[in-house]
Amino acid sequence: MPQLGFAQTFWDAYDTLERQVKAGVKKAMRKFQELTVAELYADKGLHLESVDNARDPRMRTIRITDFWRGVVLAPDDGSEIFLLVNVVPHDDAYTWAAKRLYTVNTATRAVEVRNVVAIEQLTPPLEQAASQAPARLFAKHSDTVLRDLGIDAGVLRAARAMTDKSQLEAFGGLLPEDQFEVLQFLAEGFTPEDVYRDVVAERRPAESDTDDSLARAIINTRSRITLVTSPDELAEILEKPFAAWRVFLHPSQRRVAYRVSYNGPAQVTGGPGTGKTVVALHRVKHLLSRSPDSRILLTTFTNALAKTLRENLALLLDDESLLARVQVTTVDAYANRVARDASGQTQSPITDADERQIWRRIARKLDLPWSEQFLAQEFRHVVLAQHVKTREDYLRVERHGRGAALRTAQREQIWQAIDQFRAEQRAAGTTTHLQICDSAAELLGTSENHRFDHVVVDEAQDLHPAQWRVLRAAVTPGPDDLFITGDPHQRIYDSRVSLRSVGISVTGRSSRLRINYRSTAEILAWATAVIDGTAVDDLGGDGVDNLAGYRSLLHGRRPASAGFSSAQDEAAAVSERVRDWIGQGVGSTEIAVCARFNLTLDKVHDQLKTDGIPAVRVRDQPAPDVEGVRLASMHAMKGLEFQCVAVVGVNDKAVPFAKEITPAEVDVKQHESDLLKERCLLFVACTRARDALAVSWSGNPSPFLP
Ligand SMILES: Nc1ncnc2c1ncn2[C@@H]1O[C@H](COP(=O)(O)OP(=O)(O)OP(=O)(O)O)[C@@H](O)[C@H]1O
What we know:
By secondary structure, the protein is of the alpha/beta class. It contains 28 helices and 24 strands. GO terms for molecular function: 3'-5' DNA helicase activity; ATP binding; ATP hydrolysis activity; DNA binding.
């Protein structure tokens, strides 16, 4: 029996088809599962026919409805996988199919498609123009180097005529996919060795695999082709809305998500939008498939992110019994449950602002020379981070990450304040999230209750050592215990941690994702300039991390940035821009306006209202289908994404926000860390945009703006 494969080009078209056409696709596809190859060719309803003047003799079209035809690549080497590559209105189907050529990449050995007619037509004028140009884009790479990276003769000729990156991008949609990716990397200045590692080696099958049939190449093209084996699978895949992330993982994503087993904690890092959350979800799927009764804890940073994560996991698994084995939550909520079950009492954590008020009161009462901020940080970064329980321990403890030395007498004074803080909490029956984590970690260490077989952690960069102790204690150390994804460049809360010190060592089990699937290269270039050159501690806190090789394959307009003389003028311009985006067909739910302060958002909200544009606050957790532009603080943008984003109020008073910056003379390390946190916050806000980013300010621009 023949088998069926669906190429990504098909999915790009399929999602937008009308119901009746989709029904036609399903009917036609079922025949590929029910009939033999000979019967397929003989079937009157399917009308499998070759295409006149096709550049690829294997091109066929099939009847979908009276007005639509499917385009199929039919094997001619005795193998039996048919590849559905597109669904096109009747008259266009033949022209589309006639121009396409499918080939097997010599380096990656994956199937690629090109618009061979367009490439042949465009290359000679390109060559002519290039003859006058002083330099060529790929001049420094020899033919041999390019050939070793899979560039074939036709593509080589076009590539040799290119003089700049914009020409390469203009050719993008015409070129075979893997070859285009190779050329993009080289054009960005990556070495052939890097490109081989990131593009070729990731895809290339083992040398021992010498099968060169089309079927084998199709099987090897997992980042662009879905293979369907059973009728159930066919029905399922064609029924659901198509989400590429569920099916087409980049080879570097698939390698880390589906590695059979890690011999201990594993870590995946990568810049914004590189698919870390996607990888975490696929890892959960893999772990569930490894054993019929294992239980998994999947955590993220906020309740809102946990909700989305749960929904996406349900989409990926599509099986209630599998889903029931996964608890998706935040570390705080999990710790809270552990503590509540042990004490029988509901915990009521106070907010950071309330906590600071208590410290302020205590500082005043004890007449201490430190600010409430300093005391709160000392409690967080020293006492809770290192689980300091007694005065004696505090007097001895190494105050990692703190920049101001304290003499013994000063430590005595601070311990008195800490005693007082705890006494006040006892009297009021309150606590903080981190204190709950601190005790939950202890509880988990002494009982098997609440333990999981695997823990998968998304948005790991902002977790505090007490939260890490909870996660460490939630699973017995061993193979596949912890799978951690995060990006240290997106650290926007004040957490510093050495994973090793909490018993989590990822040495030899770390991977990095480099390709951004969310934003255009133009947005990325702009946003990465915000943090460019700034050293960032890696996730484990034992070294530094960088964004080398981080890039997007998508292209669009350059971000807009503009200053205004007043906040009112700025709000009016933002509203105008939002109207413009809506006018271009962008749905209001796909537009976000974000700012450092809620007060700035209030102004924009008022202006939008005056202009008749609906808007809702992200913090109110509107359902995805509730109309309205999303308004969010920069912090609330963590983990989200929108087609268009306006980042407003980016002036020198807001970013960095002076109140959040510890003066250097109080604690120089904290000062630097506070500044970095604000820089990362702007980076996070800007990297939420997929297609369009507009940044604005009134007064003096933020010093972090590129
Ligand atoms: N292989 C893929 N194919 C198609 N889309 C993908 C793929 N991987 C990721 N994406 C899409 O890219 C976007 C970013 O993915 P994801 O949220 O997982 O990235 P992230 O690294 O967790 O981002 P951030 O750190 O900024 O929160 C999402 O829209 C996701 O669906």
